[in-house]
Each structure stands twice: as C-alpha cells, then as structure tokens.
Amino acid sequence: MTPFRLLAGVFARLRALVTANLGLKLISIALATLLHIVVQRDSVKESELAVPLIVTNVAKNKVFVGEAPEAVKVRVRGRRGAIQELLRDHAGRLSMDLAAYRDGERYVFDPRTVEVQLGKGQIEVLAVEPPSLLVRLDQAAEVTVPVEVPVSGEPAVGFRQSQKGVVVDPVRVKVFGPASQVRQVRSVRTNPLDLHGADHDLRVLLRLVPPGDRRVQLSVEEVSVEVALEEREISKNFENQPIAVRGCPPGSRCVLAPTEVTIHAEGLARAVTSLAEKPPLNLVFADLTGLRPDEPVKLSVHEVPGVSLTLTPPVAKWTLLRESAAPPTTPPAH
Asked: What is the side-by-side order of every strand in the sheet holding 159-169?
C-alpha cells in the first residue's frame, strides 16, 4: 500500500469517528456547557460591598453628632448568582438603629442583623468595616435668628441704594440642630447679592448658607430679597463739541473762533448717560442772523429734557469771508 493510500485511510477513519452519532455528540457538548454555567453560577465566592448607612430612631429631643461614614464595607460569602443579584440591586441600605442607645455607648454591627437588612438569605455576612461606631448624642435645640444679606459690587454710575436699603422676607428664620452648634448662631447669611452695574430695582431669591455642618437645618432654604435703587444727579463734561453755523449770508463763508466748545451737563443719571450715548445733531450752534462781522455772537444749545447744559466759552467771534469767483480757464495750446 502506498503512503498516499495509507494517509487517506487514516483521514477516513477520523472522519467516521467525528460524524458517527453526530447528534448525540452535539447534545453532549451542549449539556456539558450548560452544566459548567450552572456550576459556575452556583459556585461559592466572597465579595466586598459598599452599603449606604443611615442613622434612625434617635431618642426624642436628641441629635446624633457622632462620626458615621456615608457607607460601610460589608464582606459577604455566597452563591455567585445571589451576590451578583445583590450587586445589581445596589445592596439597599443599612440602618443604624439607635432606639436603645445612649450617649457614649458603642453600636456594633451584628452580621446576622446585617444579613436580615440585606434581605438575601443565601448570603452570609463575614465582616463589616468599621465593625462598630461610637454613639454621640447631643441635646436638640432651636433658635430664631435674623437674616443678613451681604452685598457685593456697586450700582451703575448715578444710582445708589434707597434709604429703604435691603428688604428681606422672611426677616428671621428658625435654626434646628445640636445645641452645641445652634446656640452659637447669631444670624444666618444668604449668598451675596450682586449689585454690579444695576440701574433698576432688584427682586431676587437668595439661598441661605447653613451655619454649621449638615446636622444644622433651617426652616427655609431661601429668602426673597428686594433692593430699591434711586437715581441721583451726575455731571459730565463733553469736550471738543463742534459749533454749527446758522444765518451766514448767501455766497459767503463765516468762520467762528473758536470752532469747538466744552459742554458741562448736569442732571439725572439716565438723561446724562443718554446724552453721552446719542447727542442730538448740531447740539451747539451760533445764529449770525442780523449780526455784523467781528461782532461777538452768543452760542446756543438745544434743550435736553432733564439736563442743564453750560457752554465754555459762552460766546464766539466770527469773520465774514466772501467766496471768490473761480479764475477763468485758458484753453490748452496746440
């Protein structure tokens, strides 16, 4: 037998072994895989969970002031599937029940109690970190204190707070919490009130800043704050303002000296600011009608409501220049 036929025979026998009872072999592989998954899911493992902690059932008129973490570490052992289900459910919360505890005692996390709170009978609690906490209780207290509003920034130019000042509603709030902290509170402040650039009355809601740690609570979280602004008079100089000319004889050119003036404006802030932003056309003018050349002319200014205007200088001199005829043109030489 040649080597080629010998090799072909080996392959044929291997193919027969693989294809014989193929269905049963596939079913066996599937069952083995399923069994492996079940065994893996049902295998026992250990894991560590971070479980949120809350303090409950504090004695009447008492406040818990001890150091308690937001979450405790719980070491558990159990079936893989049960632990995965517990992790998926975020492990709920642990309650630190202080109904039977007094100040200075230690609260011990009993693994059996923790197992009941976790609500998974197939899981064993091995340890809790920290294993215990010191119970510190303080007398609960309540005081009523005024609200203070810190002010930052300055109003717009020409505006200031009215005599009413800052009006707060409510003007006083209640503060609850441990007596050791609450009895030291004399007032409660809001977030700063920003007046920077304000040119109108303000009415806003500002949050109160708790005067202590998270155990100190307030009867309200925010207050209404009103500030009335009053407009006051301001003054401003407008330099290098051009002087318009009226009444210059036809065919002439009238020259003023000086050609520009300074305007001193006084009035309420909005009016003066509006004048600075958009002055009227030909605000200052000189009317030469009926005047002789070189005769001083009194300068005039348009009226601006709410603003008093003063000119410097108040008068100007003027000179009359006749417009000369254009010289005759000479045709170009050829």
From this structure: 159-169, 222-231, 202-207
Asked if 86 contacts 48 with a C-beta cutoff of 8 angstroms, the reply is no
CATH 2.170.120.30 fits 233-322, yes or no: yes
Which residue, chain included where needed, has tokens 């303090």?
A: 55
Residue 266 has a pLDDT of 96
**pLDDT 10s digits, 259-318:** 999 999 999 999 999 998 888 889 999 999 988 887 899 999 999 999 999 999 999 999
Name the CATH superfamily housing domain 139-230. Answer: YbbR-like domain (2.170.120.40)
Which spans in 74-163 are helix H? 80-88, 111-118
Q: How would you classify the pairing of strands 260-268 and 307-312?
A: antiparallel
Residue whose entry in the numeric block shows the structure tokens 């949050």: 207
- Structure letter (DSSP) for residue 121: T
Domain 42-135 top-level CATH class: mainly beta
Alpha carbon 183 to its chain centroid, in Å, reads 32
Q: Quote the tokens at residue 146.
A: 């005024």
